[in-house]
Q: What sequence folds into this?
């Protein structure tokens, strides 16, 4: 089900809790909400639609990728940029890394590890900031 985008800074500032098998509904709602906002958004975190769980999703044109309980384990190539967010008005300066490695669970809750660069790495970092309650 498509959900309304949360704009409550107090809610978005809270650190999300671990997700598990009982959170399949949140995953589906993230998929539906990202698809409904595809023209203006490439990624979302569960707290953006009201679930304070460690789940992110992104789609940069090659299909949706869901990451449950993602942890960025390696970063390289620090740079400064500006980003916008559906939950916030305007753009803000932030620091990102050109290359990252991430450990996460896939939708079947199977452990995965991936290396990501460029825009994909930036999306993942932005969404992981949401999970930590960081407002950019």
A:
């Amino acid at each position: 089900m498509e959900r309304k985008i949360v704009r409550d800074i107090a809610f978005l500032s809270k650190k999300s809790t671990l997700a598990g098998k009982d959170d399949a509904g949140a995953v589906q709602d993230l998929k539906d909400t990202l698809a409904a906002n595809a023209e203006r958004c490439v990624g979302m975190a569960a707290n953006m639609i009201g679930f304070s769980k460690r789940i992110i999703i992104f789609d940069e044109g090659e299909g949706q990728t869901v990451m449950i309980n993602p942890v960025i384990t390696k970063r390289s190539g620090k740079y400064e940029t500006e980003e916008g967010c559906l939950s916030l008005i305007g753009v803000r300066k932030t620091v990102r890394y050109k290359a990252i490695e991430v450990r996460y669970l896939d939708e079947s809750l199977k452990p995965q590890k991936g290396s990501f660069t460029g825009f994909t790495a930036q999306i993942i970092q932005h969404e992981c900031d949401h999970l930590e309650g960081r407002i950019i």
Notes: The chain has one domain: 9-131. The chain has a mean pLDDT of 96.
